[in-house]
Amino acid sequence: MAQKLGKLRTSRIGLAGTLAAVAVALGITFTPKEAEGYATKTIHPKLVDKLAEFCPSEGYDLQKMKDGAINEDSMENMYVRAHNHFQHFETGEGLDIGYYDIGTLTSIEALPVKEWAVNGEMQSLYPFGDHSWSMVVEEYNDGTIGRSFGHIFHLIADLTVPAHARLDIHASPLVWNTTDELKKEWWSGDYYEDWTDKNKDEIMDLIHPQQIPSFDTLNALFDDLTYFTGSNFYSDDTVDGTISCTWEGKFCYRNVEDKKVKILRKGLWTDFPNKDCFEDDWPILGAKAVEYGAAAVKLLEKEAAPVCIDECTDMGENKCFGKKVKFCGDYNNDGCLEFVFLKSCSQNEECIDGTCQSLAPSCTCTEWQWAETGCGKNGCECDERYQTRECTPPTCDLEGKCALKESCISTCSPKLKSITLYPIQDTWVTSKYNEEILLDEDDVGFNQTLWIGGRKFYSSNTQSGISRIYLQYDLSPLNNATEIQQALLEIVDDGYDIDPVDGCGWSNNSSEFTYQFLPVSSSWSEETLIWDEQPDFSEPSVEQPIKLKKYGEFTCFEQKKVDLTEMVKYWQTSKNYGLALKIKDEDVFSSSCQFAFEYDSKEAFQNHSFKLTVYYFK
Fold this sequence. Notes:
By secondary structure, this protein is an alpha+beta fold. The radius of gyration is 31 Å and the shape is elongated.
């Protein structure tokens, strides 16, 4: 087994430097090899080829990507970059060792992978310089996915090595070359890494990546991958009984992504992972390296998308668009301002200077008449015809509109279209604060934040309670839809646990709740709704299991899409009063389960947590 360094870990580079100085004085040369992860010149370049095969891109420069993947271990420079290739799967911490630069007599502490990957200033102090994520984006904007991405992909691959996700430091070998016969190993290496290197020509065909995960940040990608590796697989020196498995004969098996894998072999004094385990582990971990590498490519494409342009200049400014009022805000969270629909003026109102104002005198209009045009003319859709009518007095303008004409439907094939809707009303209520939830200087309240779960997180009232969310969407843009095909509500997770959640059914840092989406049967106001005045619920309701994972202090789930097709169809034929979002088993939220989720409201101008996309034929 690999020997733990204990207290020596903090001065390991200093020790290597001292050994180098002594060796030079004695005329001895040696080559240290510090915790390199997968074999630098074999496995890492082969994984680059696998990535290009699984996730093709016109921007790949494969040779430069391979060069970056090799250089990230800084083999010729005592592997000093490799000290930053570790991250604990639970705490997120890196190694407690440092890099001592003899030239400048300065000591630099190692960083966890997620910090190292984005810290160009720190990387500049090391051999091969800055190849942080900002350099990856810069190279991509110049048309290349190349050397810097290779450095990042090396870090991703290293986090599929259990030793790197469980802070199991290892180095092998420190070889003295005074003669060909005299060789001495100071620290042992990692058996899994050694096994992959020795079998490099046979094992690459054993990995079969299936899907590309999606992440909003590189930080989230590293955290998720580290947790997967560290919570499912042991390294040589971290067999501590914290990973559950079932013994069958001499092997302990664990279910990983619906695969039964060996993770330990029974030993005489202590159990350990061996080559039989590695044969089960590699197809999963190798595939993860490629899948998460592809996720980094997709994240790069998203982050390096063309810069948006502001449509307006003043946040909150209202402007007229015909009879519609729109306001200025960053509604799609892309960093730019755009005009967003607020409301439509009534028949007897006109939009003037961003507000709906009564018409004086009121207009008297004739009935709508079909204009002498065909289907799809005057800017109408192919299943519409243009209508006009005259209004008096003369101050009333001639009116025209496009209207659905049944005889026109046969002239065009139905087209599947989509529209994205955001809430026109959203708020939350709590059983322990039965008043209007107004803006508070210590907590953003209904104006910015929505809460669901077992605690109302509010500075002036911190006792346990039950919270629910109410949402309402304007479906008028779907008035001319001939058939709704699908309606998906996308939930953007901004939730986290507020208090310890030992009473919430947690097991192995994961849990599951069921969200209920219930159409409401009467009108409500986001500014005045309280717990005791909630409207009744009706059908059809929808239930969605929400699987949660805990990362240190934070708890989150992957972005979810909930099918609300039948509910939207119901709103089309009945009254649309919106819906309530609650947790099905609210009784679990007793004093022993103090837990809630936080979501951005429509006023937040941030993530806009509840986006409804409707696909329809027209």
